[in-house]
Amino acid sequence: MRDEHHRFSRQQLFAPIGEGGQIKLSEASVLIVGMGALGTVLANHMVRAGVGNLRIVDRDFVEWSNLQRQMLYDEEDARHSLPKAIAAKHKLERIYSGCRIDAHVSDVTPGNIGELMDGVTLVLDGTDNFQTRYLLNDACFQKGIPFVYGGAVSSRGMSAPFLPGDTCCLRCLLPESAGDGDGQTCDMIGVISPIIDIVASFQVVEGLKILVGDLERVRRSLLSWEIWDYHTYEMKLPAPRPECPSCGRREFPALQEGGSDVAMMCGRDTVQIQGKRPLDLELWKLKLQDAGEVSANPYLLRVQLIEGERLVLFPDGRVLVQGTEDPIRAKTLYARYIGM
User: Label partner for 202 (CA 20 to 30 A): which of 27, 192, 311, 324?
Assistant: First the structure.
């Protein structure tokens, strides 16, 4: 039988948390969107800290290139191409069985963000793109839920906490024109794992302050790091902008956008197409057996096409077209083998 008091004794000796804070952590519900590099560190710390409820969401599966920095995964996960949310859930439950972990193999969209955020007290950003970050930002400020942003690439990273009704929002700090950036991603210019740990750890610190109710000590600034040449920078969060469409005018544009059914996957030579109907993987395994080499697990189906590209099918209707960055080519292959 678990001895909860002994398990968290060292953390409870830390005065800002104490026994009262530990109880609050056990009652908290946290949503982490993205279970890649940042997300796995975030989830690991949250579970080890004793958070009682954790919801994790990711649309992708484990690949060999992930193992260098995505700490919850191992070679067996990559060998079987397990969805990241499922592989992470298995690991996290072995770390702390007292945490109730709700795993979703899904893209995050305006259509499902409300359900995913139902009942959560904190949202942590483990994503790799600003389209999803703005969606999380708008949903959090609509619902009044704290949101902690983090991002990392190469040897650089940054993080900032946002408190609805107190601080500005992500759109105030990084308008969409600035959030588009210069196109640099981990898949294009690389990343070293220490910057991931640093950024995610700072996100977790602010998250713990929020969860135990120590809001006065929540940092009101954007921190950034470059750890190879080493320099740091801290910028105080600006005041909320009255003209901001999210925290000013409360229009929440990311929640209103219909969005595209076709999306690039962060420099990975992959295009995602969101289908209109669920996919029965057993049925599609038979349908696609003449299209190329087929392999499957309970969560996805992969087809190495004779044309050279690869299709990855998910039960929720999503299809990844790997081996191209051309959305027209991706849609052509999708139409040919799946049907529009």
Answer: 27
Give the length of the chain.
Answer: 340
Q: What is the pTM of this model?
A: 0.85
Return the DSSP state at 168. -
Which residue type sits at 221? S
State which amino acid sits at residue 152: A
Q: Domains in the chain, start-ordered, CATH in brackets?
A: 4-256 (3.40.50.720), 262-337 (3.30.310.10)
pLDDT of 180 > 50? The answer is: no
Q: How far apart are CA 130 and CA 137, in angstroms?
A: 10
Residue tagged active-site, from 99, 168, 186, 247: 186
Alpha-carbon separation of residue 296 from 39, 70, 197, 277, 323 (angstroms): 25, 23, 32, 19, 19
**Both tokens assigned to 34:** 């993205």
Identify the helix (H) or strand (E) that includes residue 45: helix 37-49
Residue for token digits 């990241």? 84
Is residue 48 pLDDT above 60, yes or no? yes
Work out whether the CA dihedral 89, 94, 96, 97 comes out positive or negative. Answer: positive
Better-predicted residue by pLDDT, 339 or 249 = 249
Residue 1 clears pLDDT 50, i.e. is over it: no
Q: What is the CA radius of gyration of the chain?
A: 20
Give tens-digit pLDDT for 121-170: 999 999 988 888 999 999 999 999 999 999 999 999 999 999 999 999 99
